[in-house]
Specification:
Blueprint lengths: L2 E10 L2 H4 L6 H6 L14 E5 L9 E5 L9 H7 L2 E8 L16 E3 L2 E9 L7 H6 L3 H5 L6 H15 L5 H19 L3 E8 L3 E8 L8 E4 L20 E4 L9 E2 L4 E6 L4 E5 L11 E3 L1
Parallel strand pairs: 13-14
Antiparallel strand pairs: 1-4, 1-10, 2-3, 2-4, 5-6, 6-7, 7-8, 8-12, 9-10, 9-11, 12-13
Length: about 290
């Protein structure tokens, strides 16, 4: 399974989270601590970010090589300044080719998407059923072969066929729809998803059979150990960070299973039930 990362807050350069921490996303690409199904995330990577005024569609950089082999990445990460970005390092599952089209993030209009998880025996189970339900726009959005991109396409389907639907509601419906399909097919599905629109993060952690893949939330960290002060001079105030594994020491909270969480620029946390809530909650308001 992949490792994913999401940030929302004051402008920073992505290297502060992707490359610099002691357990950065780069380190997680070759030495993850909480993966059960693989030992490396070396089958490509990508990250996407927004311009300061959010007027343009997100910018996305992807590479089918392992993150540790990309010599351009450090300079690019230092050059970019953004209030929100998503990143992914990939561990390809069986029958999933290692190629650029299968690297994340995926994008639809102003929204970006990253996923960590799987649909068990995807080609033999939900590959065709998902495709048969997609509207034309969602169907044509698929460029690769992964289960991740088909989950993304189903989300695009809801956004296209329900004009004005809130992004969190669309993700809730997508999760519930996939859960129902997986139950009918008697197949295991696991997914951690983070979405960004530049001024908002929306996420879900879900597994229909076992404990969901690891996902953590760090909300407005204000204090760091003294030896981090030079490495993290801004302490990431007034920010939210999602990560598959904690990047550094801090008050990382396990993401509640079975809930869609939405966080806006005011950092207020709102949850939307998927109808399959099985975990604990963190401080938030709830939408029913």
């Amino acid at each position: 399974m992949c490792r994913i990362l999401g940030y929302l807050g004051p402008p920073i350069s992505p290297d502060q989270l992707v490359l610099n921490p002691e357990h950065s996303l780069l380190v997680q690409s070759y030495q993850p601590k909480e993966m059960k199904s693989a030992i490396l995330n070396g089958d490509g990577f990508g990250f996407g970010w927004y311009a300061p005024d959010l007027a343009e569609k997100p910018f996305i950089y992807r590479n089918p090589l392992p993150m540790w082999n990309d010599q351009n990445l450090p300079d690019l990460c230092r050059y970019v300044q953004t209030t929100s970005f998503l990143a992914n390092v990939r561990s390809a599952t069986t029958q999933m080719p290692v190629e650029l089209g299968n690297c994340q993030p995926f994008a639809y209009q102003q929204m970006m998407f990253v996923h960590n998880g799987l649909i068990e025996n995807f080609y033999d189970t939900l590959y065709r059923p998902i495709r048969e339900q997609l509207c034309d726009v969602a169907y044509r959005s698929i460029k690769g072969q992964t289960d991740s991109e088909h989950i993304f396409a189903l989300l695009v389907h809801y956004l296209e066929t329900h004009p004005g639907i809130d992004l969190a509601d669309a993700l809730s419906k997508t999760t519930a729809h996939l859960a129902a399909m997986a139950q009918k097919a008697e197949v295991h599905i696991a997914m951690n998803i983070i979405l960004s629109t530049g001024d908002r993060l929306v996420a879900v952690r879900f597994d229909n059979q076992k404990k969901a893949p690891s996902l953590y939330l760090l909300n407005s960290p204000s204090q760091f150990p003294r030896h981090y002060h030079s490495q993290f001079p801004h302490h990431f105030p007034k920010s939210v960070i999602f990560a598959s594994e904690p990047l550094f020491q801090g008050d990382w909270q396990p993401y509640p299973e079975g809930e869609v969480i939405s966080i806006g620029s005011d950092l207020k946390i709102t949850t939307h039930s998927t109808g399959h809530s099985i975990g604990h909650s963190i401080g938030h308001s709830t939408v029913t």
